[in-house]
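Posted in: Protein Modeling Q&A

I'm a second-year student putting together a small comparison for a lab meeting, and my supervisor asked me to include a predicted structure for Docking protein 5. I've never done this before, so apologies if this is the wrong subforum. The sequence is pasted below exactly as I got it from our records. If anyone can share the structure token output, I'd also love a short note on what stands out.
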Amino acid sequence: MNGTDLDGYSGVEQCIILKQGEVRMKSRRLGIWRKRYVVLFAPSSKGPTRLVKYADERGFREERQLSFFRMQDVTTVVRLSFNEDHGITISLTGGEVRQFICNDANDAEDWLQKLQTEAGKSDTLPVGHFRAFLIPSMFLNYDGECIVEVTADCVNVFTDTTKRDKVAGMKISCIRRYTSNPEKRNNNLLIENGRSQEPIGESLLLFKSYQAVDIYNRLDTSARRLRGSVSFGNSSNESFNRHAVSHPPVCMCVRVCVNQSHTHSSGCELQKTTCVVDENMHQHYSLTID
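Accepted answer (user: helix_wrangler)
Welcome! Here is the predicted structure, written out as tokens:
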């Protein structure tokens, strides 16, 4: 999925929906059947394979979910015993049960097949691999859902789990800094590369992922092993910070870089734009670095 606007990230779910629609779902507390909008999502940067419940279609569009469960935790999916044509019963590990009634028999059959296909299936990736969404930038020709692999000395970005198409490869030793802010719960992971990072050179990459903290922790572990006692990333280590700011980092206003061409002079217009990163991560610098 290509685009030029960070706001498009909120709509990334559109390309990973396995099924969606209005149903009547049974309340777990009161046993009342209520209209609800349910969506079956494939695994992505926003979460694992899961069935999400919304109050209505508007709630879905505004991403205001009421509840969800992972399909990995589903043990069985069968017809409702009292409504064989239109109803579905989903059993979860631990003995919990979810029930809903569809609009017609064909819809119920489609739901049954798709839910049974995903039931109990693990979508866990190999160790060191994470699902993420690469925000559009001027530094790469690719944006969208991707796989981030963190090894002992590199961070690799692939278009999908097959790893056939490599978007970028970054040596950890050439990463100037990286940061994530779990307290903000914005799922941001920012990687800033130094000039020696080949082939992309000095650059700033912003990822969104529900696994952002996990990516950061693995990257931090690899970086500390490579650099020994020198701290790195979200670090307060004074000697490293002096090294890190000896050349001003690239401005984080990557959204405008996609939409406008720049002559990166000392008066770069990036400093006058709205940053895509939250205020605690935002740093205004000129893009001119000799």
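A couple of things worth pointing out for your meeting: Residues 1-8, 229-290 have pLDDT under 50 and may be disordered. Residues 129-249 form a domain with the PH-domain like fold (CATH 2.30.29.30).
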